[in-house]
Every structure is written in structure tokens, then in C-alpha cells.
Amino acid sequence: MIKPRKTFFMAVDGVAPRAKMNQQRGRRFRSAKEALALEKQALSRGEVLPTEARFDSNCISPGTSFMANLQEQLEQFVAMKISSDPLWQEVKVYLSGHQTPGEGEHKIMDFIRTERSKPGYDPNTRHCLYGLDADLIMLGTCSHEPHFALLREEIVYGKKQNQKRLNVPEEITFHLLHLSLLREYLSYEFQAVKDSLPFEFSLESLVDDWVLMCFLVGNDFLPHLPNLHIAHNALPILYQAYIEVLPTLGGYINEQGTLNLERFEKFLKRLSQFDYEKFTDVQADQKFLESKRTAATAPNGVVSQDSQDKAARDKERDPDEQRKVLLSPGLLEKFSHLDIPDYESDEESEGTLEMEFRQHKRDYYTTKLEYKDVNKEVMQEQAHGYVRAIQWNLHYYYNGVQSWNWYYPHHYSPYISDIKDFQSIDMSFELGKPFLPFQQLMSILPAASKGLVPKAYQALMEGEESPVLDYYPQDFTTDLNGKQQEWEAVVLIPFIDEDRLLPVMQELDSKLTDEERERNTHGGHLLFTYSHEPVTSLKCKNKGLLPNIEVNHARVEVLDKNIFRLPKEEIKKGLLDGVKTDIYFAGFPTFRHLPHTAKLERASVKVFQSLSKNESVLLTLTETPDKTLKEVADELLGKSVYVNWPHLLEALVVAVTSRDERYICGPKGRITLDKQWSLHSVPYALQSLVKDITEHCPEFEQFKTVEELFPVGKTCFMLGHPHYGCQGEVVDPKPSTKQGRIVVRLNIPPEPNLEGVNLSQVHYMSSHQLAQWLGVNGLFVSRITGTVYVQMNSREADAPSLVNVGLNLKFNKSGEEVPGYSKRANETWFYSNKCHNVLQEYLTKFASFVEKIQPFMDRDRISVEDLYYKGEGKEEVREVAKWIKEQECAQLPRVKSGSESLDEGVVKAIEDTVDKLRAGEQQRSTFLDVQPKSLFRAALHCGWMQPDPSATFRLFDRVVNVRENIAVPLGLRGTVTGICKVEEGEPKLCEVVFDQSFVGGLTLRCSPNRGYKLSTLSLVNLSHGVRTQRGQQLYQVPARRQEQHAQSSPAPEPPIDSSSGSTDFASLWLGLQKASSLPQTANTQPAPLLPTYESSLHQGTPVSIEELFKGG
């Protein structure tokens, strides 16, 4: 997917700033509480919990033994890739592990800031950052690197979220979020303010202010402002206030990471109107609901109109009476510091509401923030603390950590209308130093995860005499605070006071082991580079994960942990000189290639399987060509254009499709870009075509020399004959004796003969046949192989508690099956021997249960009351469900019906055949001079292009991986054991069992680490090469034999009677007969050095008629 060309920076979270620890602490306490609740639920249902300790996800924290092992494996993995993968050898690889302080994404941004501040930095460098966190969007935009993309996994909702899938890149849908387009969308979002500004409009300053506004809805370091939730239109509210107030500010608010306090206060004053408007809306809703409740509880729905009660209510509701109470001098003085924002209203009618709003805010501060007395000093502390929090955030995103020890000391933020009078506050921060790993663990982990900290500290988390026991509450409350999801709730636990915790820990440091002391340290970044000469070999400490690296080419340099932390004065900010935002960088789109307009409108745009509810930015192309169809055809027919704007793809008019690339050798050794077009045509609007791109990125080259494309020593693969698919190495890209050819050294391993693999182990039968074998009726088999739900609670229950006692081997609605167990063909389900064995065990083990459910198999849902009298003995249902989950078939991922696959027995036979061959393997090599078009180099082929477009794939085909930088090693051979069904137009996905195991390999009905799913875009089909070569030999035999016969005998060959209609068959048969009469010699000697390409074309083994028509 993403292939770095210069630098690959892999960062793992280290010790975080204190401001982040509070959020980490809340998350880990919540996850521990949820895990305990799930265990209690399981026990209440009568489930038996596993005896082994459950995996505690809180171990993914710096300083744990898990993270120490992960660091060792990452170092081993990087060294292995650099030693074996050519793409890794051409880049600098940085590994910043858990012992290097800082969050992973912020360590990467420190590196980017350092690089772009160096002289000679390329301002058009392209970046790709992987991660799902939303703050990556903020980090990318505030870097002001316009060529920036985020790689994110597809967000799946609904039932698909729980479907099993292999955790490999080929099985995951990824998206690229282009920040270049986001920047342009932001300019459209705020285009209404462009013409009204009394100062110069700056997109870069607008982006900075947008980042600031996003902080106001909350992030990992400070809470959101009251009632400002993204799900409740917080961003449009912020945008509208900004558009209204910006022309009056005299400039922008966020000045490259420094808050302009005067302008920020003016913005908040305008935004504070939202506080009061929101309160009035809520009050109106409450009064409406109160009136409805009053009417509902009145006798016969009629509200009493008793004159005495009515007079009392009227007096109670009289505004003058309420004002006498609420606007008394004592209350006015008490609430005077709780500000009411400016608004247009009738003073007489709104006086009471104002006081209610002030009372509401007072209640907020006393209950949520737990102040005993809300006075002016408290409100000033709140305002100043929040503004300092905003400034710390800006520093963190623009300049890196400016204080390791600062944090926002509240779970809630103040009301917007109370954030005022802060223009004179001190905005400086003390840098401090990061916590040690164990200090962070004790700050963020609950007592339930005490096993993750050293034993020396565990008593502090649960001992009754612990001086910090209050930091580890066993029970606590959470507050949704306006949010919708439980994971968004505020976790109400005390903040850590380091002046209390650290001295207590220091007293116990002497009890740490040597290994624990080593873990409790900070470390630097690691820089890996390729060394042509082998360096010290590496032994893997954890056996079974990664292999030992006997020949290690990875040179490692330890860099200081602060090497990428620049003083903020040295950081270059904003767009750099020389940056190009309007030229064509492949893979980094822009709207600038076509004239268009933009507007905000509610249009129900579909995003992540749901329609948008608010305004979207809609773009309209403004160019409307006034041409006839004939004129357009004359102009574009047969020419290439760019489609899919703004994600431009080159396409050919008439067959308008996505373009893939490959380089071919033209006349006089000139290398040109050959464009391969898709087989499917797609319609595009004429206005959306970009007819030409006048300026490409500097690296774009239409022509290259053969020496640049095939340097000496580079790996390539043969796509011609002989030796189709063999891996080779370039020896001479431009031999003096062979113009237009390349000399390569090919490795020719022996190939296994799979014709003897026994297919008799594959047996499928219909449900009727399976039922006969088992001695049950066909309905039972049909139902039990799918889903059979038993309702464990009462039939009348609002929320039924369902337990599935079916085997889940077929899925009619989604059209999926379980490979090796079920198969669907022509709308009929078939079942294998393995399915028979599982069902046989089911019937034997739970005979009494099967007898109970058989009479109810025609129902969608079986009530437990129908199976057990008064529910007694219903634990048997859960026992059956538990047994089903333990079966092998329950662990296998589903595949689409219509996929082809070989069963385990066949795959095992293939493995045995290959292993026997490898045991006596004698690989030979040969030198050939070939045309460049017959060689494949993965680096020269971009996009969705199959190495050999003519190749077709079948089960049992022998293949070789020709793609670099994927889990499967380059050049590893294997056998196709499955062909997955894919969407129309998508490349085929093959399940392959490889000839040997490898790191990252899967278990796909094969031995561990030998299987993988690969697209045909990554494979050269060796069997296809054999098939095509065999066909060439057969059709060339008659012509060659006729030439030889003509030279040796003056008598011509008798003509073949064409009247029979079988001329081609007769010619083929004649060739086969003559070929079989010639003496055959086995070619066991290595090929001579540099044989000619023409002579090698005619080498081959004659075939028999049985071989020719085998399988026909």
C-alpha cells in the first residue's frame, strides 16, 4: 500500500505528559470495571470462566514486561526486513519505542518539525501517517505540510463489525484521508468571510484558527465546553460565531501556536451567547414537558380549575412576585460574578430567566466541580486555568511538549460566558521532566491490574495501610455529561498528586529486581540503516515468533531521546518557501485542476454507511462546454484524459478506465511509459475530465534509460520462456554484443509434481444424504448447521436473551460459508466429512438435548420453557453453546459462497510433496540475455496491474510472490489452495500454501505460518507459464518438422485433406506423431553461459497426447 522512499518512522507510545495521563487513567479504570462486570454477567448466566488468566489490555502501557517483549520483537522485525527486503534497504528506519518519552504520534511530529527546519529540506515532501485517532488530523493540518495523507482502517458499523476476518492487510479495507483536500474544504467552509475582512485573508492562519476551535469541543487533554458536543452541531456553532466576529478582530486568533488573548476573549464573548440560548431552549422544553405531565396526571385528563388553587398558582407564576424573590439585593450581589451574555430581550419578561440561568451555573460549579462557595476568585481561577489549558494544547501541537508536569485539574470546564478577564495572565510553563515508566504505571493503572506493576509497589494499590490507597478506588461513578456513548463518559476518580505518590514509590525502589530497574528507564530512538557488509547476528529471545538472523545487514544507531525536540524559536512554521500546492503529485489530490464553485447545503451525503444530517460542502463544476457530440468526439476520441477528479486517474476515451503503468523498452534502447487500460468502460461527465496536466511533480519522468530501470544486482522475474517465473538478478543491463537486451542470472529451482496428490479425501454431500448417514431428518440437519436460537428468559420479556445452539456453518443472507465444512452450489448446500464428524459428536455428546429440540426445529426461536419444566436444567443450553464455540469450525473465518478451496487433507498432501522435494533440492542457475519486456520488477509497476495480464489462476497452480514489502518474502513459491470470490472488477484473491513457513504467515488449512491470502497482482503463475509454453511447443512442432523433412527429402509432405473440417487438429496430430518418433535426451547439464534468446525459445520437452488432453 504505502511504500516509503526516504524515511520510515515507527513510533510506540512512551511515557506521556501528565495532561494525557489523566485521560489514560480514566480509560484504564473504566476498562477494568467493564471487564469485571462482564465476568459477573457470565457467572450469573451459569457460564464457566476459563481457568487461565484473561488478557489484560492495560498491559499495553509503557514499562510493562509485555511492552519490553514487544520492543525486542520490533527491533528483531526491523532488522529482519532490512536484511531481506530490498525496499527496506533503501530507506532510513527509525524505531522510537516505549522507553522513549512521548506519545507516538507526537514523537513523529517532533521528527517532522526537526526535518523541515533543516536547511535543504524539500518543501514538497510527501507524508503518510497511520492511525485512527482524530487528533492526527489536527497534527497533520497544523504542520502546514500540504502533501499529507492519513492512512486509516475502514470504520465498520452494525452486524459487519462482529464478523470474523483475518487480521492481514489484504483482508482490511483502508482509506486515505487527504489533508490537502481538507485544507481546501476549510477555505470553502469559511468563504463567506473572505470578502468582509479588513486584513489579508490567509488560508494558513485560517487552518490554525480551525485547530483552535476544534480544541473547544474537547480532546485528550481538556474537557469540552458545556453543551458543545460534535454530535449536537458544536462545530457549525463555532464556525458561525467565528465568521461573525473575525472581521472585528484585526487579525487571527491562533498565531502559529501562540494564543492572541485579546482576540480570543472577543471570540469567546460572541460564543457565550450560545450558553444562554441553550439554557432558554432547555427551559422551554422542560416547561412544555411539565405541562404535559400535569395534564396526564389530572383526573380524566382535565386540569383542575379550582378558583382558590388557580389564584395561588397565578400568584406563584406572576413575574412581579418572582422578581421580588429572585431579584432581591442579596441574590443579585451573590450571583453578580456569574455573567449573563449580551443579547436582545425584553428586560421585564427576561429578568427571571436571567436569574434562573445564574442559579443554574452556580449549581453546575457546586455539583460538578465541587466548589463549596462560588465566588469571584473561583471564577477567575476557572477562566485562567482553562485559557492556560488551551495555550498548553497549542504548544503541544505546534512546538512539542512545553511542560511535562502541567495538567488541567478538573473533570469539567467552565461555562463560556464565565471565561473572561484573562488578557493579563501569565502564559509561561515550566518544562519539568517526564515520569519514569513505573511512575506512570502507578499513576494510570487500577488495582485490578496490579499484576502489571512490580511486586514492590502492589501493596500501595490495595493495602489498607497504603498512604495513597485513595488513588485506587474499587468503585467509582461515570457521568455521560451530554455524551451518547458510555466510553465517552467522564470517569470520576481523583487526580494523582505526584508530591504524594513519587516519594512513597521511591521508598520501595530498592526492592526492584535488576530486570525491573532496566525497564524503569528512559531510552533513545533507534536508527536502522542497511549495511552492505554483514554485522553481528541477532538471536530471537522469544522462540517461535521471529527467526534468528544469522546474516544481519541492519546497522543500529542509538539517538538521544531529545534529538528531535527543538526550541520553539528554531521551528520553521507555516508554508515553506518553494512549496507547490497546485501541481499534480500522484496520490495527493487537489481541486485546482478544474474550475468550480462551492456552497454549503443539506444534501444527505452518504458517509460510512449513513447519511449526513447537517450541511455539506457541495462542489459544482462551472465549465459547460458548448460543443456538439461530433466536436467532442473529434477532440477526445482515442486520446488520454484524467478522470475521477480530484483523485485523478489517467483514462483513455472510449474505454475510460483506471490506469496502471509499466515500462517498456522502445527503439534504440529508449524506455517509455506503457499504459495498460482496464477491460471495463466507465462513463464520466464531460465537464469532469481534465484534458491535460501541464505540470507534474518533479520526480515524474516519462522516459528513462534501461540502466536506470534495471541496475546491476536488482532482482527481477522472468515472464518469457524458458524459465517462466524464475527469480533472477541483473548482470549487465546493456551488453555491448546484444543491443536492446539485458543479461540476467536466473535461479531455477526444481518444481514438485502435484499430479499424484490424492483428491479422494474431498467428500461433500447434500443435507438429505447427511441426514441419512446420521439417522435424523433433513430439517434437523438444515437448521442445526445454521442458527438455532433458544430464548432463555420469558416469552413476554421486552429484551429476549438468546443463545445460539446451531453450528453456524452456513449464512444464507450474507451468502457465506465455512471452508472445509460447507459449500453452496446452485442454491443448494453441501456438507463435508468434517461437518459430518462434528454433527456426529454433537448428537452423541448431547443426545438428550437433541431429543428435546427436535420437535421445535420448525420455529424461528425456541423457548427454554418448552424444553425444561419451569426452566430447571436450562444450564444444558449454555453448555451446548460453550462446546460449539470450542470447535474448530467456530474459529474459522467465513468466505463468500462460490469461492473455491482445497480441503485440509489435500493441502497436507501438497505440503508433504513439496517438503520431500525440498529435502533433496538442488537449485541450478543459468545466464540469459532477454528483452526488457520479458522481465518484471515490482518497483516499475504501479497501481492495479497483474504482472502477466494474460495469466489465469486455478486450484493447484504453482505461483511465486513478486511483490516487495509485504508479509510474504519476495520470490517465495507456493501452491494455490483457494480462490476467493470477489466483487466484479476486483482482482482475484488467492489462498496460497507456501513451500516453507515465514514470519507473518497464516494457518489456512495448512501448517502454521505457511499460508497467506494474496491478490493476483502479487503473483506470477508458474503453471500458466507451463501451459503457455506447452501450447507453443505443440503448434511449433508441425512447422519445424516440415522444415526438417523438406531439407532431407525432395518429396513434399502429403497434403492434409481440409474437407474434413479438422485441419488444425490434423496438423497438431501430425506434429505429435513426428515429435514422438524423435529420440529424446534429458537435459541435465546447466545451460551454457549467455545462450541466445532465440535459441532458448525452442527448447522444451515433447508431450504425449495424454498430457495434451489431460483434464479436457
TrEMBL record:
Residue span, 5'-3' exoribonuclease 1 SH3-like domain: 951-1021
Domain Exoribonuclease Xrn1 D2/D3: 706-923
GO annotation, cellular component aspect: nucleus
Residues in Xrn1 N-terminal domain copies: 1-154
Key words, A-Z: Exonuclease, Hydrolase, Nuclease
GO biological process, one term: rRNA catabolic process
GO molecular function terms attached to this record: 5'-3' RNA exonuclease activity; RNA binding
Basic and acidic residues bias (residue ranges): 307-323
Region of interest (Disordered), ranges: 298-323, 1037-1062
Residues covered by the 5'-3' exoribonuclease 1 D1 domain: 574-665
Coiled coil stretches, renumbered: none
Domain Xrn1 helical: 201-537
Family affiliation: Belongs to the 5'-3' exonuclease family.
PANTHER family named in the record: 5'-3' EXORIBONUCLEASE 1, 5'->3' EXORIBONUCLEASE
Name this protein carries in UniProt: Pacman protein, putative
Native source species: Ixodes scapularis
